[in-house]
């Protein structure tokens, strides 16, 4: 019999510590090697740390919401290859089944009171995917609801995990960056016609194109003329880092909060490749499959609320970037076009810039170049 001290390993991406989200085991429990041990959150992603050895858990370090440094003691195991196997359950007891799914889906199921072992997985090798959980939530929505007479009037919700990171990032950006916003309307009538045509003529099974891939392609074109907007500010060195490559962040709403997966080297991708990357990264971010390197390294960000986009917004810059492009809802409305009043499809772009390094003239130039490409979509392919 031996004692094994497991320390929080290096989780990559420069992480020096991690926040405990949820323990998958408790002191006194037996675990197998590579079974999920604890779910942690770094500055980049949610990570499920497996047990390094098989044995009995003697102790764990940290409760949900606490941070543990890389290299600090995380758990202590008692290992003994000669130890007798755990007793078999009686014939009338169900054998627990360890389901395959993502940490985000486990957490969402736990919050909803759903037993994952009751859900048949439709993913590879029976893995439970987001659609499986949503189907279960939908089927149970019509069931009896718990009585609320004894519910407290005020519910205390600890700010932990991704929500805490979002709060810290937004606070730091708002405090450290002197934002200024620039709103411009764009006539996307021609773009809508092109989009509809491409969707009609697309191969069967191809996902429909949204406005976002066109906006990304238009932004790449605009940044070639206004490269000072595709940059970071390194405050520690008082240095501007202007990038030749466009690593474009796409803000995605997930069950855990806002995430920003990144399309790397977007300037080399075609319209269809950009659309495919947006779908892949958005899906991975929502169900917790996005890798840490897919959630970092953006040089400029696009954020869109889609049909909920409203008339205008004031997006907060994702520091250390210098600009963020906000996409508002596209609607048909009467405008003056060619000297006559007619119905056109219009969309507003609401963008924010770091006024320390981007002047109003340069910001307007970027958005006007983007507007030019969206209003004359043939330019996006030249």
How would you sum up this structure, described in words?
The structure is a single chain. With 382 residues, this protein is α+β, with helices and mostly antiparallel strands. Helix content is 25%, strand content 27%. It has seven helices and 18 strands. The strands form five sheets. The protein has a six-stranded mixed sheet. A hairpin with a 4-residue loop joins strand 4 and strand 5. Helix 5 packs across helix 7. 30% of the residues are buried. About 5% of the residues have low confidence.
Can I get a quick summary?
With 382 residues, this protein is of the alpha+beta class.
Topology record:
Blueprint: E1 2-7, E2 17-23, E3 30-31, E4 36-41, E5 46-50, E6 55-60, E7 67-69, E8 73-79, H1 103-112, H2 130-140, H3 161-176, E9 179-187, H4 189-201, H5 211-225, E10 231-234, E11 239-242, E12 248-250, E13 252-254, E14 257-259, E15 262-263, H6 271-286, E16 300-304, E17 323-337, E18 340-354, H7 360-375
Parallel strand pairs: 12-16, 16-17
Antiparallel strand pairs: 1-8, 2-4, 2-7, 3-6, 4-5, 6-8, 9-18, 10-11, 12-15, 13-14, 17-18
Helix pairs in contact: 5-6, 5-7
Low-confidence stretches: 82-96, 144-148
Q: Helix fraction?
A: 25-40%
Order of helices and strands: EEEEEEEEHHHEHHEEEEEEHEEEH
Please tally the β strands and state the result: 18
- End-to-end Cα distance, whole Å, is 70 Å
Strand proportion, as a percent range, falls in: 25-35%
Q: What coarse outline follows from CA principal-axis ratios? A: globular
Please describe the biggest sheet, giving its number of strands, its sense, and whether it closes into a barrel.
Answer: 6 strands, mixed
Computed over alpha carbons, the radius of gyration is 25 Å
Mean pLDDT: 85
